[in-house]
Design goal:
The structure is a homodimer of 438-residue chains. With 438 residues, chain A is α/β, with parallel strands linked by helices. Chain A has 13 helices and 16 strands. In chain A, the strands form four sheets. Chain A has a five-stranded mixed beta sheet, with helices on both faces. In chain A, a hairpin with a 2-residue loop joins strand 13 and strand 14 (245-246). At the A-B interface, helix 1, strand 13, helix 10, helix 11 and helix 12 of A face helix 1, strand 13, helix 10, helix 11 and helix 12 of B. Chains A, B: Pfam families: HTH_24, ROK. Chains A, B: It comes from Streptomyces azureus.
């Protein structure tokens, strides 16, 4: 029974206190300084203060902490005009490795990164249509994680953590896949299953939030207060960066834009509803748009989303009229849906991410911008940029690895005896496993 | 030309820094402590620490500041079991007066409050259909503000400020009504016009944000991290409380839920688009729903929204089948739209506010809860309560007066020589006029 059937609270005295502490700020600022160092190494404390807006004293303290954690190193001095030489710091790339796992409906991508978030190794496994058991998917993940560690030739002890993204609704505190519509998973204890094969600290979340964190740390949302990262793949959603941090909602399920209603009583969605955004702009929805326009089109590969979207992209490049109309129609839906996000959130930037956006690229972006301009209100429209994700690799792998980086920062802080309250952090307190490295 | 047509930023080095400081936290905590004292006076520092989750030392400092501002007073001691007697504080109700102005499409409501936010006087002016000039509306506001000050019999010098809510898109920094669709206002310098008649500090914003702030300080969102306040009137919108504070967006225009698309290519909206939520659940939309069900119904008062909604409420009470079907149909639309908000924000609570929600009350709430349960995803649905606003007076007046209260807290802080950075505050730095009290 949903809580919504509970009686209303009384006029006074209800609710739980929302505690914000200086430690929350400190954690956010520590992330911000590390982000900036990763983006521009080597750099000085003075440059960091200018780039982040923090005071030099605060930056100096945070840099000291990151040095102590061996995440960055001192790399010499630069002359300052007439003043004392300024100490330079840089990411300590070899200080550890991070692994990002992108479990999607049709594949498992795994990438291993150094601390500068450069890719050192990659592995990919296909997930075939029949493979819907959690154990089958976990097997692919374990094989690919083993492969990247071997390829990179690093010691297991240097792997600081593995971030895992799985589609659908995730309880990150318990490491459970609560609902994954593609495989009809309900309450699968995915983190426990993975722990049997993977002996590194594990962090579970979903592609929406992984993409959003990737843009926040390394992409188009870096330094932005309010950004929306629109994920266009088989599933569709909107990762929310609000007030400079990831907005998770009260039970880590915010951002389900793919399951908002755009056409009341419209197409049936796999969530059971009708007219959801996903049924018009997800990969399957785009296939339906194409089928309505050209039922016999050679672009259509029934039962193969990737082949169809690839064919559409080639058709656009060749000025195929059916491809153009299918993308125009998709952009009409997408423009209305993105305009909804612009009107609701009034963000600085909307980033189009994931494989469908990457494959259809600039032609899709151009049409979407025109459609959004027709739908959005003038004031929020004027304040919003719409861009393709500038991240050249898989943003979900990158974001998942970033969850592991945040987790390592947090557990290191705890080991230092600094107990932190991280209500607004993007990292769970519980999901660090106690396994020893293999 | 919208910014969305600008080229994308490069991979690195873009964006402006998001600066968060301890002062932001301090301001938020000062609001939180004052909120709690207003809700429960008298109270002790120990009770405040327990209720807010702040440390006793922090509470003691903040209470000291509020005492210095004469917003609260010491009112004696209570025994603590075996320990030292605890000092009690209470709101200093007579420490000043606040005025809230609710400019709506059909009326101007004005209320004068003491510092405990108790209503001391009210005035109302009708805005007739022909009165669409800014000067006419300003005249009504000036008359009603004069009336409440006279009625309350207080000295002008004790009025700390006047919060003014006007429908549509507002630039609060310049005090401009950028766009008010009902009167087709564009870039009306409303604050300047009001300053010619009203000699108190003025704060301009819109009903979405006023309602949200009223719920945050005094209603169902108090102490909640994430809440959505759904405003159902002639216009429709969603005030957003995220991370314990008001989410304004990058240009103070977040929350335009009324202008998100629910039925692509559906009813024409006054914003120029088709199928907006407002055209199905705003007062005019409900009239259309009623007309579709019972074109000759006696419930329908063409050209009179208030009379029609009142008639619908009486029809519900009398079990009139046309009224029941019209409200059922309205709740079907509203349920889909509220489910979108639940899926996107994953809030703790959704509050139905404004005059349409108040008039249709429990029967509407009941139907909406059932419709939301059909549309929302299980995980966010399970975490969300849906309630009617518990605020017994006009929430927009109360919220507008709260903007004036926040402004008074802020300007007092500045007079004390504490220059504050209020990036996440709900109060503009600029809109305090320098007029002397009348």
């Amino acid at each position: 029974m949903p809580k919504s059937t509970r009686p209303e609270p009384a006029w006074e005295g209800m609710g739980t206190p929302v505690k914000r502490t200086s430690r929350d700020i400190r954690t956010a600022n520590r992330y911000e300084v590390l982000r900036q160092i990763i983006a521009e190494s080597p750099t000085s404390r003075q440059e960091l203060a200018a780039a982040t807006g923090l005071s030099l004293a605060t930056v100096a303290t945070l840099v000291g902490e990151l040095l102590e954690l061996r995440m960055i190193t001192e790399v010499g001095f630069e002359d300052s005009a007439g003043g004392r030489p300024r100490g330079l710091v840089a990411v300590n790339s070899s200080g550890g490795a991070l692994i990002g796992v992108d479990i999607a409906e049709t594949y498992v991508h795994v990438e291993l990164f150094d601390l500068g978030l450069n890719v050192l190794a990659r592995a990919e496994e296909d997930v075939r249509a029949g493979e819907s058991l959690p154990e089958q998917v976990v097997g692919h993940v374990a094989a690919a994680v083993g492969s990247v560690v071997t390829q990179a030739g690093i010691e297991g002890a240097r792997v600081l953590g593995v971030g895992v993204s799985v589609p659908g609704q995730v309880d990150r505190a318990t490491g459970t896949s609560e609902y994954a519509p593609n495989w009809d998973w309900h309450d699968v204890p995915l983190l426990n299953l993975l722990t049997e094969h993977i002996a590194y600290p594990l962090y579970l979340d979903n592609p929406l939030r992984a993409s959003a964190v990737a843009e926040l740390w390394f992409g188009a949302a870096r330094g932005r207060g309010d950004a929306v990262v629109v994920n266009l793949g088989t599933g569709v959603g909107a990762g929310l960066v609000l007030g400079g941090g990831l907005h998770r909602g009260v039970s880590n399920s915010a951002g389900e834009w793919g399951h908002t209603t755009m056409v009341l009583d419209g197409r049936l969605c796999r969530c059971g509803n009708h007219g959801c955004v996903e049924t018009y702009v997800g990969a399957r929805g785009i296939m339906l748009n194409l089928r309505e326009i050209g039922p016999d089109s050679a672009l259509l590969h029934p039962d193969d989303q990737t082949a169809t979207i690839d064919a559409l992209a080639r058709g656009l490049a060749a000025d195929d009229p059916v491809a153009r109309r299918a993308v125009h129609e998709t952009a009409r839906y997408l423009g209305a849906g993105v305009a909804d996000l612009v009107n609701l959130f009034n963000p600085e930037i909307v980033v189009l991410s994931s494989w469908v956006a990457r494959t259809l690229g600039e032609p899709l972006l151009h049409e979407v911008r025109e459609a959004v301009a027709r739908h959005a209100l003038p004031r929020p429209l004027a304040a919003t940029e719409i861009v393709l994700s500038p991240i050249p690799t898989d943003p979900v792998c990158l974001g998942a690895a970033t969850f592991a980086l945040e987790g390592a920062l947090q557990t290191a802080g705890q080991r230092n005896g600094k107990r932190t309250t991280l209500a607004r952090s993007t990292t769970p307190a519980r999901s660090r496993t106690t396994a020893s490295p293999s």
